[in-house]
Design goal:
about 350 residues; alpha/beta; seven-stranded mixed sheet; three-stranded antiparallel sheet; globular; binds pyridoxal-5'-phosphate
């Protein structure tokens, strides 16, 4: 606390990102990064862009990247906004597209950055409880609100909402912006991008951090009606006109174009998720059905927080949330086959979890 902080900063409860340990040789399954490297095309493009051109500011509108995203999704560049990570785009949305007179609606168990943005921008919020199976109740988003946001698949549950559920929420809120945060969509959910022509209140956000393995580059995009995109441009140009640097733009364009690498690596993650799920279930863990690159899992008869600490001693980091309804769960990122094996081996080595024989 400092007397130089204004009252808004004094009242903030900032987001706490997952640990980025400096130790080598850790099995790092705590922040939903992709275990495979980014597209070699992206790495080459970044290397090529690292020249004296860095003297100049980058394209403020990210024209080439908007075109590459539009080409990938079969939409128009006017429907695409690009930003320095989807987190930053979400911040712009909370700042300028949600109405301040009524609470923002989001699920009770969801991405913990949403309440932080409400705090930052002075917005009220109201949560909608997931059902007993941890699914988003599509008919629960009807109270008066200043905007609606939810991830699909949801985080940290990993559970996807089918598109008819997304449409129910859109139709119930024709005068409010409904944001579908699709950070993990490429690992098994259906994208709402194909609904943008039908619903002018829909904004879909995606990131290159997960399925394109570029968390270190910080690139995200939003897709929606050109009026919403123009609103985001206005906010961006009142905050930072050059949010994406030349290296990020070059790498992101190449990554969007490398469809083979994208397809191969996301399929590998999906296959490994199924193997991880099977391995955990065989040890008696409950695993929620995930369409993401992580699973939320409940160890049998064991305190999840203690288990997470124990795994850390064994060199494996997973994420535990001290949060009602999920405090007995761990969120485990899907890693490589070797990392899955190391995790399962570490669990077996604790002597409490035994393979079920059928
Ligand atoms: C649901 C959700 N949305 C958005 C993000 C942010 O992604 P980015 O790396 O683009 O900021 C994350 C990151 O973990 C996430 O879990």
């Amino acid at each position: 606390m400092s007397r130089f902080w204004n009252s808004r900063v004094q009242g903030l409860e900032p987001y706490v990102p997952g640990e980025q340990p400096r130790m080598q040789r850790l099995v790092k399954l705590n922040t939903n990064e992709n275990p495979y490297g980014p597209s070699p095309w992206a790495l080459e493009a970044i290397r090529e862009a690292a020249d004296e051109g860095l003297r100049l500011y980058p394209d403020p509108e990210g024209t080439e990247l908007r075109q590459a995203v539009a080409d990938f999704h079969g939409i128009q560049p006017e429907q695409v906004f690009v930003g320095n990570s989807s987190d930053e785009i979400l911040a712009h949305i909370f700042h300028g597209l949600f109405q301040p007179d009524e609470p923002v609606l989001f699920p009770d168990i969801t991405y913990s950055f949403y309440p932080v943005y409400c705090g930052l921008y002075g917005l009220e919020s109201r949560t909608v409880a997931l059902d007993e199976a941890f699914r988003i109740p599509a008919d629960g988003f009807c109270p008066p609100n200043g905007g609606v946001i939810f991830p699909n698949p949801n985080a940290p549950t990993g559970i996807a909402l089918p598109l008819d559920g997304v449409e129910t929420i859109l139709a119930a809120n024709p005068d409010r912006v409904v944001v579908v945060d699709e950070a993990y969509v490429d690992f098994g959910a259906e994208s709402a991008i194909r609904l943008v022509d039908k619903y002018p209140n829909l904004l879909v956000t995606q990131t290159l951090s997960k399925s394109r393995s570029l968390a270190g580059l910080r690139v995200g995009f939003a897709v929606g009606h050109p009026d919403l995109v123009e609103g985001l441009q206005r906010i961006k140009n009142s905050f930072n006109s050059y949010p994406l640097d030349r290296l990020a733009l070059a790498g992101a364009v190449a990554a969007m174009k490398d469809r083979d690498h994208f397809e191969r690596t996301r399929q590998a993650v999906i296959a490994e998720r199924e193997r991880l799920t099977g391995g955990l279930e065989a040890l008696g863990f409950e695993v929620l059905p995930s369409a993401a690159n992580f699973v939320l899992t409940r160890p049998p008869g064991r305190n999840a927080e203690q288990l997470s600490a124990k795994l850390r001693e064994q060199g494996i980091i997973v994420r535990h949330f001290r949060k009602a309804r999920i405090e007995q769960f761990l969120r485990i990122t899907v890693g490589t086959a070797e990392q899955t094996d190391e995790l399962l081996e570490a669990l077996r080595a604790q002597g409490e979890f035994h393979e079920r024989t059928s």
